[in-house]
Amino acid sequence: MKTTTLILGCGDIGTTLGQALKADGHKVIGVRRDAARLADTGLKGISADLGDATALAELPDADILVYVVSADRFEEEAYRAAYPDGLKAVLAEFGGRKRPPKHVFFVSSTSVYAQQGGETVDEASPTEPTGFSGALMREAEQALIDHALPGSVVRFSGIYGPGRDRLIRQVGEGRIAAATPAMYSNRIHRDDCAGVLAHLIGRALAGESLHELYLASDCEPAPLHEVMAWLARQLKVEATETIQSPLRRRASKRCDNARLLESGYRFRFPTFREGYLQVLREGGYLPEATT
CB–CB of 101/65 below 8 Å? Predict the structure, then answer.
């Protein structure tokens, strides 16, 4: 019998995940406000407002729930609705069903960490976010951890990939982050976001025990200057302006993905070099022959 995965907030990452799961024989249902946007993805879509209790009650049962909702704007009210309030409503609905899900995954963010001195952080590190986004994300995480349903929080670092090319555009304009002080940055390719979730879903369906928390970032935290300087070399542009703007909301820390690697996951793009090279090639930023 096919297992059913319900992806709540089925945008870019959810769609990539859903297509991978479907290719492996899963039944996948994507839920978003406008399911028409899933029309060309090959996934079954349901239009629903997750803030509407009636709409939640009408969603089908599922073996796996993936909550990968995005706030529609960077405001406290929007974040509260999307994360703690939305997730708590979903948990209340599905936790009370006759056939509850076997596992729930909540996609969170490394914004829950406040470290900014280049410290290494992992799943055991303190989380004391100072901004509303990190605080509300942390509240949502705890709601799942405390709930009776089996669940895992997956904290993604900075997501990049096709269509997520802001850094490339800045470098292409000759703008680059300062070399000092070193501001460590962390990232994960969109395809690895989907890969991590598919890997953990497979483990859950196989009856293996999962941790309540995973930090999902690639294998090489790197100073933002180093990343941008590497991009400049690939693009064959010369840096003409040193900018501080990319650092305004960034905290300097180094994410340790050891727990994820110990679970058996292997990154498709283990560092920014492999990942950004793929984005540069697919986005038409480089000649085909460039290596």
Answer: yes
